[in-house]
Design brief:
This protein has about 300 residues and is an all-alpha fold. The protein has one domain. About 80% of the residues lie in helices and about 0% in strands. It contains 13 helices and no strands. The radius of gyration is 20 Å and the shape is globular. The chain starts with a helix and ends with a helix. The relative contact order is 0.20.
Length: about 300
């Protein structure tokens, strides 16, 4: 992994690590689906301006629309809309931990669709990640009854699964595609449909939308935390294996737990800490074999020379 990729990963972790608490705040003042659709469309429009300034094409070719529509559905509805709805009932730090089970799902999906083999250490990582989920959900599982908190946690895990699906789909179909153009349309297509539905069912309070603080938070979440960050993520995925890319950003839920506790005064219960430790351990464990295999291949090729 070269210095450009490592720098991009570090920057992405900082941006996304700071984002979860701000999203949680926004969901307390904005209607959820108006918020998410505005976030996606504003990010896409900003990237359109950037694409025009650097004099690159914006419109996809006719044969590209089908794949872009599928990708937009995965990311906008499966990931963003599900996550936004669920975060109304779950703290921001815990939300990040649950969504970032995404690398566990990628380990399985990449095995079948990208020929990134699921070896023994990846399987051990999956087991540790599953134990982490059980630890986090244990209070609800111990006294099982359906409530909005449990529903929110399950939906957040589901959003992580859809993020994994969209990442694998990008790697398989858009590896060499213009990353800004890709991000524009993956956000704009689904975001526009969500906006139509939101305008039909959610109220619009002008005082909320014209509040300077709310506007600045929305700008940061949309332009930096969504548009810029997803261009960066799509580029990282194109540079390294999907599993390595997903593992490399696993400090984000830890940062989110820290910011949630420090800034938003969200509780860090023992089962959340244990669960987060298991999930992160599982993901790190899954990555070690990849590194050791690469060292072994490099050593073998050196011997042959």
């Amino acid at each position: 992994m070269n210095i450009r990729v490592m720098s991009a990963i570090a920057l992405l972790c900082l941006v996304w690590g700071s984002l979860w608490g701000l999203v949680k705040h926004s969901l307390q003042v904005f209607p959820p689906f108006l918020f998410i659709s505005t976030r996606l469309i504003l990010a896409a429009i900003t990237l359109m301006v950037v694409q025009r300034v650097i004099k690159k094409s914006i419109m996809p070719k006719r044969e590209e629309w089908k794949q872009l529509i599928i990708l937009s559905g995965l990311i906008c509805f499966g990931f963003y809309a599900t996550q936004t709805f669920a975060m109304q009932f779950v703290d921001s730090g815990l939300s990040a931990v649950l969504v970032f089970t995404m690398p566990i799902f990628i380990g399985v999906l990449a095995h079948y669709f990208l020929n990134e083999r699921l070896n023994k250490q990846k399987i051990l990582g999956l087991i540790l990640g599953t134990l982490g989920l059980i630890a986090i959900l244990w209070p609800q599982l111990h006294d099982l009854h359906m409530n909005v908190s449990l529903l929110g946690q399950v939906l957040l895990i589901g959003s992580g699964f859809f993020w994994a699906m969209s990442t694998v789909y990008i790697k398989k179909n858009f590896a060499s595609y213009d990353k800004i153009k890709l991000t524009i349309w993956q956000l704009l297509l689904g975001g526009s449909i969500i906006l139509i539905g939101a305008l039909m069912f959610e109220p619009i309070d002008a005082q909320v939308w014209l509040n300077p603080f709310n506007e600045s938070v929305l700008f940061y979440i949309s332009v930096i935390g969504t548009g810029f960050a997803f261009v960066l993520w799509n580029w990282i995925v194109s540079q390294v294996d999907t599993f390595i890319a997903s593992i490399s950003i696993m400090c984000i839920p830890i940062l989110s737990l820290f910011f949630g506790y420090l800034i938003w005064h969200e509780p860090l219960t023992f089962n959340i800490l244990i669960g987060a430790a298991f999930i992160c351990s599982g993901i790190v464990m899954s990555s070690l074999k990849i590194k050791s295999q690469r060292r072994h291949l490099a050593y073998s090729s050196g011997e042959q020379r």
